[in-house]
Specification:
single chain, about 180 residues, alpha+beta, Sufe protein. Chain: A, 2 domains, five-stranded antiparallel sheet, 3 helices, 5 strands, elongated
């Protein structure tokens, strides 16, 4: 081959150049994602805590503060004691969840000093919109208010037609909340 003829074969650098460019792009993107996560994680955590406090205040509006309790019940997420301004316990709030059709179905149950359900709320879930999400409706949740802290069977409540998996999950979460309440009260 003479000096005037050019080789058609690419050089080693030309062969690995696209790989190096992709690796550089991945490194830069990874670093940027890490920086964004470090910046937004505390904000997301603060927002989640604020939303949780709003739910607790909605469940027990007369509470001045909440004290977290320890528990061992599987399926329970949080157990809180609601305190009045003098520091006296006025209620317990239990957040429990169970597997539904689209994921976990969490509920928050407030038990008054007599062990009766004073309030209940369904928390955000991934159930089928229009069906499974109906576990958050007053028509469904309202049937738990006033019940004593005792296990409830599916025959004792009206499950949602077309969303029995979701409403059964809410029932199981309610029973988990009862078990947790019995443990912490």
């Amino acid at each position: 081959m003479s000096d005037t003829q050019k080789s058609d074969a690419p050089s080693t650098f030309e062969t690995i150049r696209p790989v190096l460019v992709l690796v550089a792009i991945c490194v830069v993107a990874g670093v940027l994602l890490g920086v964004v996560h470090q910046t937004t994680a505390p904000i997301a955590l603060a927002n989640a805590e604020k939303e949780a406090q709003e739910v607790y205040a909605m469940l027990v509006p007369e509470a001045a503060s909440f004290e977290e309790l320890e528990f061992t019940t599987e399926g329970a997420v949080f157990a809180l004691k609601a305190l009045d301004s003098s520091g006296n316990a006025i209620s317990h709030i239990i957040v429990a969840q169970s597997k539904g059709y689209g994921g976990q179905v969490p509920i928050a149950v407030a038990f008054d000093a007599d062990g009766k359900v004073s309030n209940i709320a369904a928390l955000e879930n991934e159930e089928t919109p229009g069906l499974g999400t109906r576990v958050a409706d007053e028509a469904y949740l309202g049937q738990y208010i006033g019940r004593t802290a005792e296990q409830t069977s599916a025959e004792a409540v009206n499950l949602i037609s077309g969303a029995t998996i979701s409403s059964r999950a809410a029932l199981v979460a309610f029973n988990t909340a009862v078990t947790t309440y019995e443990e912490v009260s």
